[in-house]
Amino acid sequence: MMNSKAAKAAKAAQADQADHPPAVAVRGLRVVRGGRPVLHELDLTVPAGSVTGLLGPSGCGKTTLLRSVVGVQRISAGAVTVLGQPAGSTGLRSRVGYVTQAPSVYTDLTVGENLRYFAEVLGAPRTDPARVAEQVGLGDRLEQAVGSLSGGQRARVSLAAALLGAPELLILDEPTVGLDPVLRRDLWDLFHQLAATGTTLLISSHVMDEATRCTRLLLMREGRLLADDTPAALLAATGAADVEAAFLHLVGATALTATADNDGTAR
Ligand SMILES: Nc1ncnc2c1ncn2[C@@H]1O[C@H](COP(=O)(O)OP(=O)(O)OP(=O)(O)O)[C@@H](O)[C@H]1O
Q1: Which residues pair with residue 32 across a beta bridge?
Q2: Distances (CA, A) of 254 to 17, 28, 222, 245, 249
Q3: pLDDT, the chain, mean
Q4: What is the pTM assigned to this prediction?
Q5: How many helices (H) and strands (E) does the chain have?
Q6: Is ligand 1 within 6 A of the CB of residue 64?
């Protein structure tokens, strides 16, 4: 049985879907982990076809939010709607791709064996393993055991596995960590190619300079959303020269608001 707050959140999420169906609508999301609140009543949307960056310092709750969108996180309150269905619905399984921070492929199998195995599980076309290996620049590594690949190459095998079946929404948790600048650029180019064909990408990073590569930004701090905007609008609103400065500006603004809330005077 839903309480009235949860019912209200679900209704608001449905209303979002009716106007301009976003790929993801989060309303009043609250998550508690290890007895401590980690996400505090988050409200946000991820527009369909966008490359949305989820940025914030380590431990601010990015992975927890992504897990909530995938539907593998127990939530305390709120509603998360993904491609028009409640997060985690069975019908979303082949429509959402998720790449966790740690590569999640079998190290004792080759790249090709991994991709063929996951393609079989997903019911993806037989031609998909070769296609996705090409997409991530591993077309010439199909016969190599994953255990003998570099860390960056292994991360790209995980990404390739998530591209099997051409999901409509890709959720990537820090996909560029530890990659050299050329690979990082190539991956961001790939993300934009995917978006150009209609895929929505939600990508977390704690590297603020990746923000300029996104069409939309979600800035998070300590389980709260500081901004949900385009990079250009964020810079215009804060008068900052780059996203890192904008983030610090917003952190300062919330600190002042908190002080004002506490004793009625802004210091
Ligand atoms: N299994 C867990 N049990 C208890 N607390 C947890 C658990 N997992 C995460 N947390 C806490 O939840 C908060 C948010 O963690 P989360 O992994 O979502 O952050 P993050 O922004 O993704 O960090 P990072 O960029 O370092 O990956 C942190 O304070 C973390 O310590």
Answers
A1: 37
A2: 30, 19, 11, 14, 9
A3: 86
A4: 0.85
A5: 8, 10
A6: yes
Query: How far is 237 from 224, CA to CA, in rounded Å?
Result: 19
Query: Which residue is closest in CA terms to ligand 1's atom 8?
Result: 33
Rg (CA), the chain: 19
Q: Is the CB of 55 within 6 Å of ligand 1?
A: no
Q: Ligand 1 pocket, 223 CB below 6 A?
A: no
Ligand 1 pocket residue status of 89, Cβ below 6 Å: no
Pocket test for ligand 1, best of 40, 54, 60 (most atoms within 8 A of CB): 60
- Give the residue, by CA position, lying nearest to ligand 1 atom 10: 33
- What is the Å distance from ligand 1's center to 133 Cα? 31
Tell me how far CA of residue 229 lies from CA of 119, 215, 233, in angstroms.
36, 9, 6
Distance CA 81, CA 219 (A): 20
- Show the CA angle centred on residue 141, arms to residues 139 and 147, nearest 5°: 140
| pLDDT (0 to 100) of residue 108 | 94
Please indicate whether residue 34, judged by its CB atom, sits closer than 6 Å to ligand 1: yes
Q: Whole-angstrom Cα distance, residue 29 to residue 258? A: 21
Cβ-Cβ contacts under 8 Å for 175 (sequence gap 6 or more): 99, 155, 159, 187, 203
- The one-letter amino acid at 214: C
Q: Are 222 and 60 in contact (CB under 8 A)?
A: yes
Residue-wise pLDDT for 103-119, tens only, equals 789 999 999 999 999 99
Q: Which helix (H) or strand (E) holds 45?
A: strand 36-46
